[in-house]
From TrEMBL:
The active site is at H306. This is Lactate 2-monooxygenase. PROSITE patterns: FMN_HYDROXY_ACID_DH_1 (PS00557), FMN_HYDROXY_ACID_DH_2 (PS51349). Keywords: Flavoprotein, FMN, Oxidoreductase. Belongs to the FMN-dependent alpha-hydroxy acid dehydrogenase family. PANTHER family: FMN-DEPENDENT ALPHA-HYDROXY ACID DEHYDROGENASE PB1A11.03, S -2-HYDROXY-ACID OXIDASE-RELATED. Residues 11-411 form the FMN hydroxy acid dehydrogenase domain. It holds the Pfam family FMN_dh. Its cofactor is FMN. Glyoxylate binds at Y37, Y143, R178, H306, R309.
Amino acid sequence: NQVYRAGVLGRRPAVPTDFAELERRARKASSRTAWAYVAGGAGLGRTMRNNREAFDRWAIVPRMLRGAADRDLSRDLLGTRLPAPILLAPVGAGQLMARDSDLHTARAAAATGVPYVYTNQGGTPMEDAAAAMGDSPRWFQLYWSTDEGLVDSLIQRAEAIGAGALVITLDTTVLGWRPQDLNLGSLPFARGLGIAQYTSDPRFRSLAAERVLENPAEVTLAAVRSLLTMVRNHPGGFLDNLRSGRPRASVETFLDIYSNPRLSWDHIATVRERTSLPVVLKGILHPDDARRAFELGMDAIVVSNHGGRQVDSSIAALDALIQVREAVGPEKTVLMDSGIRSGADVFTALALGADAVLLGRPYMYGLAVAGQRGVEEVIANVIAELDLTMALTGVTDLAGITRDLVQPVPGRA
Ligand code: FNR
């Protein structure tokens, strides 16, 4: 175990190996508005708290003397080979944490072999992120637009960049109530962040340009850069935009198209005709919704409350996972995210029914502290702790992480 040896032998890592210190360092490295958006949660923050407290209610019960010297953490998931049961969650407007955040993350994912789920709200077009990754696995996350043509175009682009699966996020038909952002008046999309997937679409490529033309005093460097990219790639579109006079406020256009408040099972039922990619529904919390997803022929679900950013007082993702697994049976592919902070957490989630988990904020904090290397270390640390936990609980592969290896903590359940 390289990470562990390096630490024991006195080599200092680029990012702290414990989450609390990582969080402190990331906060220091970030602006107030960036921190509010990335670290913040919905409402009073109860869902974020629930996510963590759910892990505190479970204890691992290690088994001894099983000779678990050689361990295999790999898993095949919907045709994607995972070196360990983790993926990088889609995180929008990551440029708040670091310039070219999606590219740094893409390179870190490629270096570790961990799949990267590209966000619909990227600061880098998915084509550029894919180019930075070689053959390493990538998936694409879709927000179902009000514009059905845009839905098709995003799906086709995801197919073209070799995405291994299409992840449709269900829990963000509108943005949640996020007081920190509201108080600071700082929704990142209004500053031209996180809109690169649209601006490389022929029909929406003028979004960034419009933003720059609208209010030159307020735009971010990122918006100017996406404008320049657009001018370089689509000079015609830029000129059309200029000729058409003052465009509609781009933020309004963005809010109109980025997600569909009317999204229903009827939309999801059409997805099978639109792509042959494996389809994953992200943001499921109720067992009936989980059953319905599989009845509709979906390949997998992600039990998630969006890292506590959407509904305040929501059920913890880990609690929902237990109910969902119970409802769908042992065979279905069920992923989980929201609150995973360590390798021990991954172990607990797998014991309670997850096939793999997604990391959100932890890798964003690594990015804020040390860029690509920070992301790589966060991934390596989580995997290393999971590996050691398996060694010390007598488990040699992921199938060995069974329900009997965790118990409710007495008095806390
Ligand atoms: C997210 N998440 C998210 N999910 C998604 O499907 N599309 C997106 O664009 C985003 N954007 C986003 C931005 C930021 C700043 C955060 C923190 C999260 C949710 C993300 O995929 C994942 O569900 C959570 O981050 C998991 O929870 P933890 O690990 O952050 O606790």
